[in-house]
Write a structure and sequence with these properties.
Its main location: membrane. InterPro entries: LexA/Signal_pep-like_sf, Peptidase_S26, Peptidase_S26B. The protein is about 25% helix and about 20% strand. It is α+β, with helices and mostly antiparallel strands. The strands form three sheets. Strands 9-8-7-10-2-1-11 form a seven-stranded mixed beta sheet. A two-stranded antiparallel sheet has the order 3-4. It has a two-stranded antiparallel ribbon with strand order 5-6. A hairpin with a 2-residue loop joins strand 5 (about 110) and strand 6 (about 115). The chain is elongated.
Amino acid sequence: MNDPGEEDDRPAGVEWIRWLLTTDDSAVVYVREVLSSVAVVLVVGLLLFTVSGVWPPLVAIESPSMEPNIQQGDLVFVMEEHRFAGDAATTAGGASTGVVTRETGQGNGYTEFSEPGDVIVFRPDGSQGATPIIHRAHLWVDEGENWYDRANPDYVGTADDCEELPACPAPNAGFITKGDNPATNQQYDQVAGIARVPVQPDWVIGTAEFRIPLLGNIRLLFSYLFFGGDQVLTTVVAAGTVGAAGVTLVARD
């Protein structure tokens, strides 16, 4: 049977809330700190989403395919491609794709991450289940186009003409893409088989805007420790630091 005196000592109403916020009880302090950390990270995530228009707005880079411009282990902020898109963005079907290709950037001086053209995050071949890729958009090709003569001969492998070049003539309109790293990505994605066909605009998740060095390693470590690196979480809470802001893994070779 409870002591009536103990019940009288318990806070009630507003006092209960005040007690939760001010008590030195170790268990309550622990829960309070965890909840406050989660709340802060969620607010940060929502602010980033408001700015970027993409969820998740942060991507952790798990391969060296974009080095030296984007490093493995970086955390990269991604923005919806149509936000702040300039006149240099490729137009398809009378509408802007929001993406500037390397070909166009070389002509007008537009650069991102030290080289001409936009770096895009996209779903290879439109697959919802595949790990997104972060590579540079090199060319825009129209459906049925023989794009061999526009291609950089260093990136087409041993092909001597369109007939020997994969995805040529182009089976669909889209972007020809490639990682910046000359050691690991010596051919266009559509030649190397990283993406079988040109990247359609609706497969593009967004454009990479800036990187935070090394911070993506937190997300990568979390994935490898708990999921062996095979399962991708689109939202995680990593000790109240990066995760709940929304982080996914991108950029396999």
